[in-house]
Amino acid sequence: MVDLDTIVSLCKRRGFIFQSSEIYGGTGSCWDYGPLGVELKSNIKRVWWRDSVQLRPDMVGLDASILMHPTVWKASGHLDHFTDPMVDCKACHRRFRADKLDEGEWVHYCPATKGNKFMVPDGEPCKHCSARRTLCPSCGKGNLTEARQFNLMFKTFMGPVEDDAAVTYLRPETAQGIFVNFDNVLQSMRLKLPFGVAQIGKAFRNEITPGNFTFRTREFEQMEIEYFVMPGTDEEWHQQWIDERFAWYQKYGIRKENIRLREHAKDELAFYAKRCVDIEYLFPMGWSELEGIANRTDYDLKRHSEFSGKALEYFDEESKQKVIPYVIEPSGGVDRSALAFLVDAYHQEEVRGEKRVVLRLHPELAPIKIAVLPLLKKNSRIVETARRICADLRKHWVSVYDDTASIGRLYRRQDEIGTPFCVTVDVQTVGDADAPGDEKVTIRERDSMEQVRVSVSTLRETIAQLMAGNWAEVATQLPHPEMGEG
Ligand SMILES: [Zn+2]
Ligand SMILES: [Zn+2]
């Protein structure tokens, strides 16, 4: 498995992800998606939306605002319970999670060795004096305060007055926007149970220990579904969503040995949740959550009914009774998905004695679908033809033209960013003084490095077939050129 530093460095070098505000020294745990990252991320969101909303008659979408009525967070329980126990160092004023204090090495000025400074590994005693950590793990000098509960919501003020009446929060999850709009969606769309509402949007959590690149950040994007069902059918629906979401990641390229389900233990469940299952991915730092799928029962609708005084119910025509639906919540992270897809796609191999880095991204996720490359950049007919072909392909797919290096180098550059197809225009395509061109170009596939030669007039059609994932099928029917420089 590739290490995280390799991914971080590729992301920066090739324009996927940059440190936020880097020229000012960076902002802790905030990341900016560069030109390729934004394409990757929007492709992930697009396929998720297509599979979750467009292709399903039982799903609709929503885009709720980030700032909501403060009572939402009272009703949801976030104001009272969305907290971590924290301690502060009285000397360096760093803050730590009380329950994670002994995870990670600690700084120790050892009295047995004239006060020399040591780093002692995770929670172990000092091997010189056997002392255990009592002081700040970071500076090794300060005493720690008693633990206090620290709310993870970002607090801010609405309007020009910064007083208690104006306090509001950046949403810590998108889900509540769906619950408070339950009746609006139900009535305006005339929906019947079971139905779901999907939403993609930013959420904010003031994590004390963010880290592992884009895995845990304070600002992140969620892809959430609240799927409302008749009470009593909830367990079955829950299982269906678990299976569906588990298959989804594999459909877009996550290898099955790198993904697993993890059932939450009873003592791990939120008090209102009946069951929760995480989809975990084998990230470079170990198995970690990619998506959580919870059965939240009727807790949220009940709470918002109670706090708002508005009934959030569904009238069941069959039994002529009002019911409060149960809700199944598949909640995934866009940033985590992007990271998982990148890590899973990363391959390093040797081709004819040289190192080749290739991102085997699913064609639908690849930031750039096609690169059009002229074999000789000094031949104006080749260059013109290549530019014309690229302009035509751009109407359908994200395509680039590149003539800034030799063909071998250009292929490697595209491999490294996951471009599934390169189209090469050569002398044979355009002809020369002695012979007319054949009006054909070479398509080279990223993973196999195989090439086929197709007519420019059918290029678009062939690429459309190839995008559908049929390289082997389509390629066998087309003539292979002399193997050029892979
Ligand atoms: Zn300290
Ligand atoms: Zn010691």
Could you characterize the architecture of this molecule?
- This protein is an alpha+beta fold.
- The chain folds into 3 domains: 38-81 and 157-342, 2-Layer Sandwich (BirA Bifunctional Protein, domain 2), CATH 3.30.930.10; 83-151, no CATH class; 368-476, Rossmann fold, CATH 3.40.50.
- It has helices at residues 4-13, 35-54, 71-75, 78-81, 175-180, 182-189, 234-251, 299-308, 334-345, 380-394, 407-417, 427-430, 459-467, 471-476; strands at residues 17-19, 31-33, 59-61, 83-88, 95-97, 106-110, 116-120, 148-151, 154-157, 167-170, 195-204, 219-229, 259-263, 275-283, 286-295, 314-316, 321-323, 326-333, 346-351, 354-359, 370-374, 399-401, 421-425, 440-445, 451-455.
- Helix 2 crosses helix 9.
- The protein starts with a helix and ends in a 10-residue tail after the last helix.
- The mean pLDDT is 93.
- Bound molecules: zinc ion (2 copies).
- One zinc ion is lined by residues 89, 91-92, 94, 136, 138-139, 142.
